[in-house]
Amino acid sequence: MGRSRSNLQVMAGVQGPKIVATTGAFAPPPVARTTGAFHNKFRFPLPMIFASFLTRLLTEQHFVRYNRRYSYNKVFALGVCSVFDQVFESLSEEKKTQLFEAFITALDEDPSLYRSDQASLEAWAKSKSAADILPKSDGDDVEQVLAEVAATSDSFLYSKFFSIGLFRLLELTGAKDPKALENLVSSLNLKMDPIIRDLNYYKSSLSALIQAQELKRESEARAAKKREEAAAKKTEAIKKLANRQL
Hints:
Blueprint lengths: L3 H9 L18 H11 L6 H18 L8 H14 L5 H14 L4 H16 L14 H11 L8 H14 L4 H10 L4 H54 L1
Helix pairs in contact: 1-10, 2-5, 4-6, 4-8, 6-8, 8-10
């Protein structure tokens, strides 16, 4: 994921789908149930820079997940996994896994399905060129997912995670031409403006998080240096006192 920051600046300038909508009365749970389920599962404190971002992300995703038109798909899952892998890369592997599982299960979905689809899409995209990533109703699993999006573009529930998933697919092919993203979006019968907006928003949010982490590390380093200097001065003072007494 290390390359995605620079590539994003360049490019942004099957298990059956899980359907939420059902017949009869539609009664999605309140946001409080989702956030409560997350905190019951993940009980570890997070640095403020992560906690605020995660709260916003979970709240936004709640309203996507429990929209009548929501339908899980692999590209969306790739976007979710990519965000978690990049934003929370400084956490330990154990904490990252626990955080991801708490986030997905709080939304009544399966973390293992997300990770499995991420792995299959990444392997698929690495074997393709940008021009190969197109919707095909008679193609392989991924091409059929894209074809379904293109065929239902008027009712398809777009989200920023889907746009990030599209970008990640192209990134894995090594594409750097801005037209690669434009061509893919056009083939899906989707509008380019919201995708560019969401990619730019994600890029700026990620940059802010990275900057905040760097400032935090610098502050901790300065504090550690001051403690060392204070300890050294104290040691020197003790030595001088001992010498005078001798």
